[in-house]
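Quick check before the chapter quiz. The format below is the same one you will see on the exam, so make sure you can read both the input and the output lines.
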Amino acid sequence: MIGDATLGECLRRWASRHAHRTALVDEDTRISFAQLDRRVDRLAAGLHALGLRRGDRAMVQLPNSIGFVTVCFALLRLGAIPVLAMPTQRAHDIDALCRLAEPVAYFVPDEVGGFDYRPLAAEMARAHPSLRAVVIDGGAGPHVPGAHELATLDGDPQEWAEPSPGDTALLLLSGGTTGVPKLIPRTHADYAYNFTASADLCGLDESTVYLAVLPVAHNFTLACPGVLGTLAQGGTVVLSRTASCDEAMPLIERERVTHLALVPPLAQLWVQAREWEDSDLSSLRLVQVGGSRLAPLLARRLPQALGCRLQQVFGMAEGLLCYTRLDDPEDAIIHTQGRPLSPQDEVRIVDEHDQDVPPGEVGQLLTRGPYTIRGYYRAPEHNAGSFTRDGYYRTGDLVRRDPAGNLIVEGRIKEQIQRGGEKISAAEVEFALGHLPGVRAAAVVGVPDALLGERICAFVQPQDTPINMGGLREALRERGLSTFKLPDQAEVLTHWPLTPVGKIDKHRLIAIAQERRTSGATAPSQAPAPAIARYAERRMAVATAPLALAARLARNLSSQHYTLYEHGSEWSIGLDSVLDVTIDADGTVRRSNGAAWKALPPCAGVAQALAGIPFEGWRAYGRADFELAHLIHGLGGTSGTRPLLKLSIPRSEIRLRSGEALIRALDPADLAAMETLVAAQDASSGPEIGQPVEIARDSGTEHAYKQRVAAAVGEMQAHAYQKVILSRTAEAPAALDMVSSYLVGRRFNTPARSFLLRDGDFEAYGFSPETVVEIDASGRVSTQPLAGTRALSGDTAKDERLRRELLADAKEIAEHAVSVKLTLQEMAEVCAPDSLRVSEFMDVYRRGSVQHLASRVAGQLAPGRDAWRAFEKLFPAVTASGIPKREALDSIRRHEPGPRGLYSGCVMLVDSNGAMDAALVLRSAFRSGDRCWLQAGAGLVPSSTPDREWTETCEKLESVSRHLRLRTPAPPQ
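Here is the expected output.
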């Protein structure tokens, strides 16, 4: 034990003993104990100057990084209390934690893994008056007014009044799998014991190199013995941003890592990875596995695959820790979860009446001890049920104890399935499944069932060979499992959905089971076919025109996630999401039910992810950022604030045509409320239109844009590429009313498509002058490149003169011709050669304040080609990028000051019958948090001039800017 030292003082003592030893490694940065101590001292002074004081709470949501470690120690040195949030948590959880902890400061990174935390921080700062400071580890940007960059917080070291060892040092998150996590107050003294006693038991010393692959905010990674235990012994901590084998295993080789901790799903992946990943792992001495029960088969395979010892860890952030010992017999290490850390740990195993069960029997685990809490933070009602009158903590775990005192975890009380009056242990069924041929791992949940109360659903991960799912029940029966314990439903998953702390998310499994409800009759040797969920539908007559009614509905929707898409004579609105398919910045395709595709090209992965979705007649609403093109064309360095592509299958839809509304919902119970909403808005007077607003001309922007145009024209004259589209932004007022602006703008525009969407704090609307691709259910493909522009003034004679000028302008004609030529080449790669044709060649289309040269290129998909292959070839639209596309994309990235995001990407509909409709995002307005802006570009060829291209962007912006409206102030109370 450390005695009376507080955690902030611990680091000072470690630095005095190990000053020049390496404490932390973070990518290419290495710092010694002495350097870490100095950084913490100076940061503590900077935080004090910011207003943080002893006893204040501070939300820390940082990845595995030096920033995390220095922030936590600086807060501890001040006597402030870190509230450790997981990097994967989002607004719902963080909002609840802020309400509970009332932090005065919030620490976030700028961007990690394609997610921008700054809009989240801005949202929390607006919602919670207690948050006086937001600190960004990285660039603050414009997202959070008044935010501070972590690197700028500095001051001369001072002496601070130390807290008492019995004071709360930090607030950890409960590792439960349900609801918003509770906060666990750990004191300086009990937490110091937690990691020092653990470090001694696990044999850590100065030679230890600990790799943190799980989130450092997790108690397991932080202090069991984890980061703090390693530092306490003078060892080195290597901080990994990812637990992915292809990045973490080379780190083990490079840094000669000796110790690390995994959770069972990750351990499974690491064992599998050794079949192809060949990094030198010979330095590894010990791998800990905890967080949930480790299957014995996996426990036996892991030491062989990784070439080191295994230690099972069972515990909780609330306190009690159990470890298998390093010298335990193999049988104990494989089949048990170890014994308590402290001789003072008290353990009882009781029945439902709190009576001790006989030795060896299963019961609920109760515990109290020197480092186990006596209550959750600000949770008196929950504490009444979580602690006994004599201070034992009800862990909720079902365990039994072997003769040597080791605990074997059999499951959770909440994981008992109540089926037809019988209580079934999910862990018992999982154990039986784990011994079946072809089953790599299994998870079992109880799913609400009208007849049985709960039905048993088994999820299995297959080995390399297919599983005979049809014979699953018989195989379990042959192993002696009682008939009433046999799964009623069986599903295959390749990846487990995980909670923020890395446990299998059984609530998500229940949702997946409901989505995939089985049909009942199954062929003996086949997997059960998922039942097809059908949208319930209701039609109703409406009197309001579709555009006006769509705007009224958008104004009054309670959902924070919807997409409105105008296609032909239909305005279609998708609400919320039952299933998402996304493409990450690294090209990984993910489905929100946990499946992921990494080896496939991104668009092929999307096609795979959409295959087999158990909904009949689904329509996906989606969007793709312009930077998706970097992946498609093999340009590195792609990053973004959100997935590069997102498709959402809605829980409900409203499709509007003249005189009729079609309402669709997966849950028939939703239809009545939606019908009421449509009827109310059909009868209302519509949204009140706010005041017009003008966007001021910015001479600085004009000068900068013309310079970029000149630079690009010079490159084209040197034959670097033939054409490029360079864009610029125009800032709009934060009080912009998106719905009213869309409504007014649409009345004065004649787009090929229009859209209005909201996804949390991101909103956009636009009037698409062309489509990226249109594909019908029979595989007919068409696209509509527009290139060549003149203004539309409203004066008939002037507009006709400009039209003739456009048709005679050699520069505009050449620009259009090369666009059509490239589109034909792209279409030839996916269409039958004899089906290609160009129609409407060089027609002039009127689009709001602009008229364009336009042509349509069409063809029939060739055998073996699908809609996503066509999308991959045609995205981004040539009229938004340039020619050749790869060189144009590179030019855009060099000449434009930041990523485009949705601008010149697309908003799209994808139907279950194979149809796709993707609208080019131009003539649009955007909102992210408090920032609103417009964006427009001009097509440049070698003969372009900066003045003309500036004028073209002004003409295009005007089709949106002249119709902007401000929010109408709320009436006085």
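If your answer matched, good. DSSP finds 27 helices and 52 strands in the chain.
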